[in-house]
Amino acid sequence: MVTNPMDYVEPFGKAGASGFTFHVEASKDNWQELVQRIKLKGMRPGVALKPGTPIEDVYPLVDGENPVEMVLVMTVEPGFGGQKFMPEMMEKVRALREKYPSLDIEVDGGLGPSTIGVAASAGANCIVAGSSVFGASEPAQVISLMRKSVDEA
Ligand SMILES: O=C(CO)[C@@H](O)[C@H](O)COP(=O)(O)O
Question: By its UniProt entry, which PANTHER family does this protein fall under (predicted)?
Answer without folding.
Answer: RIBULOSE-5-PHOSPHATE-3-EPIMERASE
